[in-house]
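The methods section describes the discrete structure representation at length, but only in general terms. Since the whole study asks how a given chain folds, the encoding of that fold should be made plain. An entry of this sort, consisting of the sequence and the corresponding backbone structure tokens, reads as follows:

. . .
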Amino acid sequence: MPTFDFDLFVIGGGSGGVRAARMAAQQGARVGLAEAAELGGTCVNVGCIPKKLYSYAAGYAESFEESAGYGWKLPEAPQFDWAYLKTQRAKEITRLNGVYASLLKNSGVTLVTGWAQLADGHTVEVDGKRHTARHLLVATGGTPFVPEIPGREHIVTSDAMFDLSPFPKRLLVVGGGYIACEFASIFNGLGAKVTQLHRRAHLLTGFDDDLRQFVAHEMGKAGVDVRLNIEATSIARGPNGPVVTLARGQQIDADTVLFATGRVPNTQGLGLEAAGVALDERGAIAVDANYRSSVPSIYAVGDVSTRVQLTPVALAEAMVVVDALFGQGKRALDYEFIPTAVFTHPNIGTCGYTEIDARARFGEVAVFSSEFKSLRHTLSGRGERTFMKLVVQKATDRVVGLHMVGADAGEIVQGFAVAMRAGATKALFDSTVGIHPTAAEEFVTMREPMPG
């Protein structure tokens, strides 16, 4: 049998790659991992973590405003220090980079710094040095996509948003997905004048229709200028910053133009063609149900291959691969009822099927929904409202869709996701005692289905 340097070599030090490397090493495997940038990948460095920190920062503006309704008299208008927030965020990200490095070291993983390329099905080259492994795992994640538009050199992507200098007083966001909506909400909360353009009729394609319309309305009430059915055709450098020309000929001046128009798998420059690894129609690594590519010794997990681009999904896929290669091979990942959150203001939380998808999958469904002003805002003076929706399969009474727009939606939906994965019925929801007074109790007190 051939002798290899490693049992497993991982390309990519993001969430999926680090989890796979650590867990494999703890199973006794000889593991190497190559990363050219900071450890932690998109999530830690330019994604989930810094984005949530900035979302918290934006939330304080709302809290200051609301506090007056509860008797708090601030001596003067709060002042926001963008430079300080950036410094604090950078410190936390650096700390997390160190945590990831320690986890790998303490697990016995050999960390190789540099850009890795596949030479064949068992060989990786990093800065001219070759490393062989019985199994290779590609976990290089994704990267922002920017369309071929005149003047694209004048825009920024989500990766650059955390360190903008100076703070943009006028921010134009192009895109309607969750990244676009989150940054529009965050910078609006931090004090920027935000305009969001989307070429479709509604934001957040793929989310429940009622939820999409509700959150767009709430974002508008909060101050984001949401403009739908509009497309940017070019960007030019004006005397006071970028100038964006729209399809109808209008122009919008901005300090910063963010294109949040999707993400694509990081498959360029990895030597995939040389190794014979096939890509799918999206340019992602094509994998089977066991995350194995067209080359039997090469696997792929996370955003470079999956259709569900979420950090916890990458972690779960990594665990399946490690268990198959070095464990008992019993672990599997069920993609149904994966909960997710969008950190707009207000937040979105969702689990399961949209109403349209549920009707296509299950036939007859019953829909329950509720819209209300939360108790917090009876005194806050703000007009923010909360929306909740349940989609129930009539034949089984099972809750197959749960959607929310409102404060702490992600925190609330996480617990309900457990119940949904366990097959909870609407009758079980109805028989559950709610916690009063909370917004979450509305999910167990909705009794009358919507007509139709």
User: Anything to note?
Assistant: The radius of gyration is 24 Å. The domain at 6-144+264-326 is CATH 3.50.50.60 (FAD/NAD(P)-binding domain).
